[in-house]
Amino acid sequence: MAAGIDWLRLWHDMPNDPKFRTVARISGQEISRVLAMYVHLLVDASQGVTQCHDESRTVTRGVTDVTDEDIASALDVSEDVIRSIREAMQGRVLDGNKLTGWDRRQPKREDAGNPETGAKSAAERKREQRERERLARENGEHHDESRGVTQSHDREEESREEENTSTQALPKNKGGSDAASPAPRSPSKASRLPLDWVLPKPLGDWALQERPDWTAEHVRKVAEQFRDHWHAQGGANARKVDWSAAWRTWVRREPAGRVAGAGASAAPAAGWHETPEGVSAKGAELGVHQREGENRFVYRWRVLKAAGDAALIEKEVSAAARMNIAEHERAHQFFYGCLPGQMSRAA
Asked: Are residues 86 and 208 part of one domain?
């Protein structure tokens, strides 16, 4: 085992914990995504500082500050998916940014020990180990198990010894140096859309293939909307790790409507629900305003639901079904309050 590895705990029934199934049902996401996101939150929360029993250090363990964008990038899903899961987790496995039950499930054993919890210090554990070894020698028993130091789950004991052993075992290069593994690549950092951004030709060609009803002129118009939208956004939501992926998501979620440059035979003028301007105007009419940092697609869904047009809602749910199962379930849950198939059973 490599030295210096940090550890955290998972409980035996975690995959079958009903709370996660509830989160999956409410968020409209697959249980696998819910569990994967929770593991990311666990890892992030375990990297904080632990308070000693004398209260000389600040408590931050158990609190997560990983962004929705970072998790979405790691799991290859949209930020809306992560946001819906995080909201459903509140009051179940999350309390704000703190993971509930952290102190019970992830106790940190400090070197100084903790008389309140009964955690032993490193010196106490080492002393007990030596006593076991002495008794083993006196009794002529040499069990390998008696030589093990009880390990904290957060950091392995005897890390220096393991590191020395690992170093000695490394093969040598021709020059005599240790042949160490290459350092892992640091993850890409999120950034804002460049001010001089222009849609790359490969992404434009991809949009024409993805949306056969679009023209090159319409792709240009959509790219301008994409650019203006993200330049106007602020905060963490305006930063992306992969802007090409953000563009592809934008194109897939664009509603069908009148296509710019399509000629006289084009479809009739777009309705209010098919343009950002129309959605904003309808939202103002209904008293539904876009929240700060809110994704425009989420806002559009809220306005559609407030408008109460059954035909438009059905059209939106059908469009989500063409994307993937998870998006269909999410749309159905949002507009109808249940997963697909549950309405017919209830009827």
From this structure: no
What is the tens place of the pLDDT at every residue in 145-177?
Answer: 444 444 444 444 444 444 444 444 445 555 554
Where does a domain end: 62, 86, 105?
105
CB-based burial, 198-229: b 16+ in 10 Å, e otherwise:
ebeeeebebbeeebeebbeebbeebbeebbee
Q: Which of 100-104, 158-162, 214-218, 303-307 has the least mean pLDDT?
A: 158-162
Q: What is the pTM of this model?
A: 0.34
Query: Does some domain include residue 160?
Result: no
Residue 74 and residue 255: Cα distance in Å, rounded?
27
Determine the straight-line distance between the first and last CA of the chain, rounded to whole angstroms. Answer: 57
Please answer whether residues 203 and 239 qualify as being in contact, where contact means their C-beta atoms are separated by less than 8 angstroms: no
Give the angle 117-122-125 at the CA atoms, nearest 5°. Answer: 85
CA separation for the pair 21, 39 (Å, rounded): 15
Residue 181, domain member (yes or no): no
Please check whether residue 110 is in contact with residue 53, taking contact to mean a CB–CB distance below 8 angstroms.
yes
Count of domains in the chain? 2
Asked if 97 and 207 sit in the same domain, the reply is no
C-alpha pair distances (Å), 140 with each of 143, 147, 194, 246, 253: 10, 14, 73, 68, 73
- Domain assignment present for residue 259? The answer is yes
Rounded CA Rg of the chain: 28
Judge if 100 and 211 occupy the same domain: no
The last residue of one of the domains, among 67, 87, 105, is 105
Return the closest-CA partner of residue 246 out of 212, 197, 317, 303. Answer: 197
| 314 found inside a domain | yes
90 shares its domain with 222: no
**Residue ranges making up the domain that contains 270:** 201-346
The amino acid sitting at 156 is E
* pLDDT more than 90, % of the chain: 12
Q: Which two tokens stand for residue 113?
A: 């020990």
Backbone angles phi, psi at 95, to 5 degrees: -125, 90
244-271 pLDDT, tens digit per residue, is 999 999 888 887 655 555 443 444 345 7
